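REQUEST ID: PR-0412
SUBMITTED BY: lab tech R.K.
PRIORITY: routine
TASK: structure prediction, single protein chain
INPUT:
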Amino acid sequence: MNDERIIELFFERSEQAIKELDKKYGRVCYTVSYNILNNRQDAEECVNDAYLGTWNAIPPAKPNFLLAFVCKIVRNISLKRYEQNTATKRNSYYDVAMEELGDCLACAPTVDEEIAERELTGIIESFLDSLSKENRVIFLRRYWFSDTYADIAKQVGLTEKNVSVRLTRIRKELREYLLERKVLL
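STATUS: complete
OUTPUT:
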């Protein structure tokens, strides 16, 4: 079933919408959540919570890209669960991925910096647009979907070492890109 029809089912308030959403994107949603949480049960719960969140958001929202819309909900719910689960302990998969970006990005913005955060988002989007398609996929798979180097290597047909080297170079390019635009690191 295509995305437009699934969205129509949400607007009709048909429970079939959630079934179709799960059938089409359930595996991707689970992978996003599991890569953050590294826990099967928590990931399943977050995906189910995301389906409820999607049900509550559509309508009034009418997303252009259903997968991105749902993945954002899954990711946000999973990050909240991650924070709850790791208040005193460390989850190596997600923490390592975020630490890799630590040299490129400053701490989370304060309330006074919300406008600057929007500008930063635009700058990062512009940076991503400047990357080759393959490098953009590698970057997003690592830092948005929290995929391991092995998973990324398998997906794009490279070695883990090559993925590691590319990510190192992309982070360096991002840092330089941000410095050129006078973004404080």
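NOTES: The two ends are 45 Å apart (CA to CA).
REVIEWED BY: pending
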